[in-house]
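Dear colleague,

Thank you for sharing your sequence with our group. We've completed the structure prediction you requested, and as agreed, I am returning the results in plain text so they can be pasted directly into your records. Please verify that the sequence below matches your submission; if there's any discrepancy, let me know and we will rerun it promptly.
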Amino acid sequence: MKRRVVVTGMGAVTPIGIGVESFWNGIRREQIGFVPITRFDTTDYKCKLAAEVHGFEPEKYMDKKSARRMELFCQYAIAAASEAIADAGLVMEKEDPWRAGCSVGSGTGSLQAVEREYGRLLEKGPSRVGPLFVPLMISNMAAGNISIAYGLKGKSLNVSTACATGTHSIGEGFRSVQYGELDICVSGGTEAAITPMGIAGFSALTALSTATDPARCSIPFDKDRSGFVMGEGAGIVVLEELEHARKRGARIYAEVLGYGCSSDAYHITSPAEDGSGAARAMRNALEDGGVRPEEITYINAHGTGTHLNDLFETRAIKLAFGSHGEKIKVNSTKSMIGHLLGAAGAVELIACVKEIQEGFVHRTVGLKESEEELNLDYCKESCSMELPYALSNSLGFGGHNASLLIGRCDL
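Please find the predicted structure tokens below.
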């Protein structure tokens, strides 16, 4: 039997604020996080802007020894997890650790570790490569470190599906609680790929915006969009079986109702041109949650700001919802925080939870005018409206599609 699953805690590290409250205040203010890259010299790079996290102090969330044994993507994950677990009011000493798990993914792991240790290999030889290089680099260490820090002895997963990682990770955590494998699952995504190789690699794909105006660099669904802006950070939610949450008097933010996936089986970087893969993921999520397409009034789109993604995701929404798609509010949180890759879907789900709570749909900041085929309501202005449901989409390189359906929790 399916069990009901709710969100009882949230944590975020983002380019417009560390902590959910700070992040959400930034969203309400329409704050953009795009600044000249400070992590390395971009003189020879076409891409000059990114959405960096500023003011992050790992020692606030872990001791110095632990921080030295974690790369930045893991530090972000620990910080967001610590906020989410505290927000949920979880006291792990009172919980069965074998019924508490973790599903946190990263798309790239640590490019910093790869660059650093490869430099040592070339300059000083193989004997000088650090003994912790592999455990520092590999993407599963976010989930591993969170589990170690909080004694989560149940299922521990690292989903890595590129830009769909955060959404898949929360979806798989949802499934694990829904079908009784866990009572609690700390779930989400994390990423820190603003590095020379990260920027150079995505630039070589012509995926990154080369705009130098922060106000016009990340403009999803705009006719002048030219690519996405690299972001970084982490989003973590605590998923919990409803009765378990009620028994301990937990505050419930929202209910996770459905999770849908598909594969385009089409191209390593481009979504399917007709939008059929993403449309199937959305419809699967709705069917899983028992919600009719015409009941959906809001979608948080993947909305990267690349020419093909925004066009093909628009086609997917039209295919999934037919004429009703024209009545749906569609926005992109990436218009403010950039593309957090493996963390994107998790942070965007947190935005969805806050929007449901406050009855508020944020603007797609920077959007001025769309081309003819992009004729949905992409939220040129923020608005207040009742939101019984929110659908959040993520599409990853390789054709990975994932959608999460959440709603108000009516007990």
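Summary note from our side: The radius of gyration is 20 Å.

Kind regards,
the structure core
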